[in-house]
Amino acid sequence: MAGLRIVVVGGGPAGLCAALEAAKNGARVTVIDDGPRLGGQLIKQTHSFFGFQEFHAGTRGINIAKKLVKDIESVNNIKVMTNTTVTGFYEDKTLTLLEGESRFSKITADKFIISTGASENMFEFGNNDLPGVYGAGAVQTLMNLYGVLPGREFLMVGSGNVGLIVSYQLMQAGAKVKTLVEAAPRIGGYLVHASKIRRLGVEILTGHTLKRALKGDDGTVCGAEIVALDENWNPIKGSERTIDVDTICLATGLTPLVELLWQAGCEMKYVPELGGHVPARNEYGETTLKGVYVAGDAAGIEEATSAMIAGMIAGIHASGGAEDTAKKEAISHCKELLKGLRSGPAGKKIEAGLEKAVISEKE
Amino acid sequence: MACSDWLIKEHPILDFAFSTKRKVRFTFDGRKFEGFEGEPIAAALQAAGVRVFRESHTLKRPRGFFCAVGKCASCSMIVDGIPNTRVCVVQLREGMVVETQKGVGKLRIG
Amino acid sequence: MSNDDKAKRAKEQTGVLGEADLRNSVPTEERLRSGPVAVFECIEPIPCNPCESACPNNAVTLEGGLVTGIPKLDDEKCSGCSLCISKCPGRAIFVLDKSFGNGLCRITLPYELLPNPVVGSEVTALDREGRDVAKAKVMKVVSNKFTDATSVVTVELPEEYCMSVRAIKVNE
């Protein structure tokens, strides 16, 4: 549909793929991102991706980002606004923007795709506010974007794919990961990721958590006290152990960033399997607000390949894909790919979450 | 001049091309530092081993870098006289004056 | 709890695959002695399929034809070319060769750290638990555009470690 104005908020894998598909259909797209560069979390991922061969599997995340950004730059009808934060989404479909540090402006459009990603979770432990306690994303930003080693000896908290992968990346950057603790009785991420770090000497302790960070004379982290947990997740007295580390990295889950969708008035649902509150949406990602779509981690915590495909679906549909046979087939193909990605055990949780979040046309 | 001990000079996958980046000078609490122009001030501080960026208001606890994306305010410092500057997103420029922020920021008007 | 369940529990807690897990992917002694052959230490149904298309001999198929299918290697078709090693995102493929008849074997594995291994030098061989178990000699290091920043390293060491060594530590 030519001339349709579409604003994409969030220039990560979901947003970029949505923008590319919408632009292909003739829409005039504006991609807005609060960071200095497009690519979202992809620009920090030095590891090779899983998924389909036809969909960048085997390619390093950083190179997938490069390719997507190159594609975006080569398209005439996509305008990019980086260093721009969307500060509000009002009833009349006006978005307020903060460009840079001090310029305010407004934008509106016919359709919106909100692909704002997720934020890292904190949890309670003693001295959790100390310098030297960093989120996994922050550790990746320092070491993979700016080439700064965040510390020399680490405790990693969390054994999901993020914790396992960032541990490996820390070793590549020259740091030592002494121990990884996971509160649950089993490793959360893929065993191949766990095996990679085990054979390089990283100790993985399931059924353990971080009790408190230890404060050094300089006021920053100088150690960590970990403790074992029983089957009811209660700390076992006397099982405390101190590890000498200078940095603690938290990889304890992500929560979708959905403030704009709340403010806009979308119906929201609390879905633990998807990471928290997410907007109710149909199979194309359209929320209860007509013309407002959600894609990527903002729709539910998953991973980059499914974010890209969900972005494509939203982009095709938002730009009038429902009317065109060829595009309808493209959407069907995307849905098949998503089904394939979610067909393993890890996908069961996502599917269970989507049951709660997806509203079918009949409802 | 505090040197950048924490820069990753060699990496198996990434090339940071430090030699192509423009180095600029800034001060932190009156001491002379160097960093790369356009990168977050926090990156330059961390590269020099500085982790304590401010002091909390009530309990005067040391605080520093945490989220790296400008959302948690843990990294707030006074930059060129302006308090509550999120140094993890604000870009470093030549001659910047960076200071530890103690407590809540005081805005000097005029 | 059956032994299989115990093994499952152990691996999920430690991240270390045991004999029971690898039962279906270990090549026969005969095959190992006839030339290099790949071993896929990938036992979970992860949505991932680059290994299939990486093999120039069509020796890899994913169970059930699904992207989450566990990879199965037809080791008669496998030539031990090692092209799959750098394509596996999980870094879970190794090529083993016990055909030398001199008490030594060769293991080809993916390596993505620094320092780079130097051909002819000695490195420390690590088992799946990261323990130093032997010394190994670096025979070959392949690193090019195809391997995309991964080094595919072949080391030689006593053949008793063929099924246990899965990583190396390069000394400064």
Overall tally of domains of chain B = 1
What is the level-2 CATH architecture name of the largest domain in chain A?
3-Layer(bba) Sandwich
CATH topology of chain B: Ubiquitin-like (UB roll)
Kindly state the number of beta strands of chain A. 20
At the third CATH level, what is the topology name of the largest domain in chain A?
Answer: FAD/NAD(P)-binding domain
Do you know the CATH architecture of chain B? Roll
**Strand-residue fraction of chain B?**
25-35%
Number of distinct beta strands of chain B: 8
Count of helices of chain A?
A: 9
How would you describe the overall organization of this protein?
The complex is a heterotrimer of chains A (363), B (110) and C (172). Chain A is of the alpha/beta class and 363 residues long. Helix content of chain A is 29%, strand content 26%. Chain A has 2 domains: 5-119 and 254-357, FAD/NAD(P)-binding domain (3-Layer(bba) Sandwich); 122-250, FAD/NAD(P)-binding domain (3-Layer(bba) Sandwich), CATH 3.50.50. Chain A contains 9 helices and 20 strands. Chain A starts with a strand and ends in a 6-residue tail after the last helix. Chain B has one domain: 2Fe-2S iron-sulphur cluster binding domain, sarcosine oxidase, alpha subunit, N-terminal domain (Ubiquitin-like (UB roll)), CATH 3.10.20.440. Chain B is built from 1 helix and 8 strands, in the order E-E-H-E-E-E-E-E-E. The N and C termini of chain B lie far apart (33 Å). The mean pLDDT of chain B is 93. Chain C has one domain (22-169). Chain C has helices at 3-14, 19-22, 29-34, 50-54, and strands at 37-40, 60-62, 71-73, 93-97, 104-111, 122-127, 132-142, 151-158, 165-169.
Output the keywords.
heterotrimer, A: 363 residues, alpha/beta, FAD/NAD(P)-binding domain, 2 domains, five-stranded parallel beta sheet, 20 strands, 26% strand, globular, B: 110 residues, mainly beta, Ubiquitin-like (UB roll), three-stranded mixed beta sheet
